[in-house]
Design goal:
Number of domains: 2
Distance between the termini: 29 Å
Oligomer: single chain
CATH topology of the largest domain: Dihydrodipicolinate Reductase, domain 2
Strand content: 15-25%
Largest sheet: 8 strands, mixed
Length: 479
């Protein structure tokens, strides 16, 4: 005899049906004034530690923790793993997020996904299929097809979603978006954005030597869907970003932050093409690692048939990989790298691109220029008289509580409103697709024409294997 549906199952069914019809009848769970929203943290060190701590501060009840570093078996490890566990001693602990969601999914209202890039799509989609709201770190996914997959799954399930590009929640970014859309600098025709990354090795020509994995690390689970590689301390816990198998390089690490305001303000959508030049002309001497620097140019359809050009700059022009130190150093004298790849002076008009942590963006319109840095609550507009007598628009973008993305995520779940988070997957999924196309151009070393509808390149059929890569046996993504 079939068991009667629980109240939560019933409400979930209504929500899924409503999502399929493109409207929402009821939230996936109804919360009273005194209800606590339960949260599971997938990844408990590094960014995971701060995501969990900030979620708790936002109002979540942290009931589950998950990490491939098992602090239950090795309580004397120390570090952020132990600190996070100590802050939430009553939370159930799991090594494997798949086991956690299978056993406890009906008790979990939301998850944070703060793993390396190559696991994002798998953990996030598994949580969504359990009807859990998902806060996933940037970049939303490791691959382009994965970003489209999560976007479509979020629409299908109707759960609340949010990507972790924190400044998206800040008032100054939302206000600049409103001002650009209101015509402060005219129609956007060109954008430049730059970063001080990488701060880890890139341009790596060969895999590091095999080491014995520490007993407290579940290395096979860390590898997850990626091709199996032997453990090395030159990969885990921090340097994985410099390998294509696991990370997305300087572009993937920072572009979802730095390109965010301009992409949002200009409502750019998908590019029609992307091209790149990089350190040695074809990536990084191998298919192992991103280059030590790259300049990537996207082309978007603009108004009146014109093209909007968007140029991204990362890395250091003097950087070379030293295999003896397993680090980047200057090819000039072997010292610290110090020649950042940034826009030319004639574009920045003397602005110091190395100040404010060495990243920023410049939006060029038909009537002026706007310099923006997500770490500052001020911006520069030239010519200055564009500000005189400008008809400032009323705020139109909802403001996050306390300019906090975790609170915005919490409030959306409480309200049962998946449209409330401004970095929801319907926005951050296409944004991530656009960002990661830059790596496609770097790896293929040619101008890639792009058909967003089919996620394919008319002139580069070889792109298909990078748009959607093969996964390790036993791992697959299904709606």
């Amino acid at each position: 005899m079939e068991k009667p549906a629980t109240r939560r199952q019933f409400v979930r069914g209504l929500a899924a049906t409503a999502a399929a019809l493109n409207f929402q009848v009821v939230p996936s769970r109804v919360f009273g004034a005194n209800d606590r929203i339960t949260l599971a943290g997938i990844g408990t060190s590094g960014k995971g530690a701060s995501d969990i701590a900030n979620s708790a501060s936002a109002g979540f009840q942290v009931t589950h923790l998950c990490d491939i570093v098992n602090v239950e078996k090795y309580p004397n490890l120390g570090g952020a793993w132990a600190k996070t566990r100590g802050n939430h001693p009553d939370a159930k602990f799991y090594e494997d997020w798949r086991e956690m969601l299978e056993a406890e999914g009906d008790k979990i209202d939301a998850v944070t996904v703060s793993t390396p890039d190559h696991v994002h799509a798998f953990a996030a989609s598994a949580a969504m299929k359990k009807n859990c709201a998902v806060y996933c770190q940037k970049p939303l996914t490791h691959g382009i097809w994965e970003a489209r997959f999560l976007t479509e799954l979020a629409a299908k399930t109707g759960v609340v979603t949010q990507m972790g590009n924190q400044a998206h929640a800040e008032n100054h970014m939302r206000r600049v978006v409103e001002l650009i859309r209101a015509g402060l600098i005219g129609d956007v025709v060109e954008v430049h954005a730059w970063t001080n990354r990488p701060i880890w090795p890139q341009g790596i020509p060969a895999w590091p030597k095999k080491e014995d994995a520490p007993s407290h690390i579940n290395w096979d689970l860390w590898i997850g869907p990626a091709p199996y590689r032997d453990y090395s301390s030159q990969i885990h816990p921090f340097k994985w970003r410099g390998y294509w198998d696991f990370g997305t390089g300087a572009l993937g690490d920072m572009a979802c932050h730095i390109m965010d305001m301009s992409y949002w303000a200009a409502e750019l959508g998908a590019p029609t093409s992307v091209s790149a030049v990089s350190a040695d002309g074809r990536g990084a001497m191998s298919d192992i690692s991103p280059p030590t620097w790259a300049t990537i140019e996207y082309e978007f359809p603009g108004k009146n048939g014109k093209t909007i050009k968007y140029t991204w700059y990362d890395g250091y022009k003097d950087a070379v990989f030293n295999p003896d130190k397993w680090a980047l150093e200057s090819k000039i004298d072997g010292g610290k790298i110090r020649e950042p790849n940034t826009p030319p002076a004639e574009i920045t008009e003397g602005l110091d691109t190395t100040e404010a942590k060495g990243y920023g963006s410049l939006v060029i319109g038909t009537e002026g220029k706007l310099w923006f840095n997500r770490g500052k609550d001020t911006w520069i507009v030239k010519p200055g008289n564009r500000m005189d007598g400008f008809d400032y628009p009323a705020p139109s973008i909802p403001r996050a509580r306390d300019e906090d993305p975790h609170k915005e995520f919490y409030d959306a779940i409480k309200a049962g409103d998946p449209k409330l988070p401004q970095s929801k997957f319907s926005h951050s999924g296409p944004f991530t697709e656009m960002v990661l196309l830059g790596n496609l151009a770097v790896r293929l070393n040619k101008k890639v024409e792009w058909d967003s509808k089919t996620l394919s390149s008319p002139n580069c059929p070889e792109a298909a294997k990078l748009v959607k890569r093969d996964y390790r046996e036993g791992w697959k993504l299904e709606a």
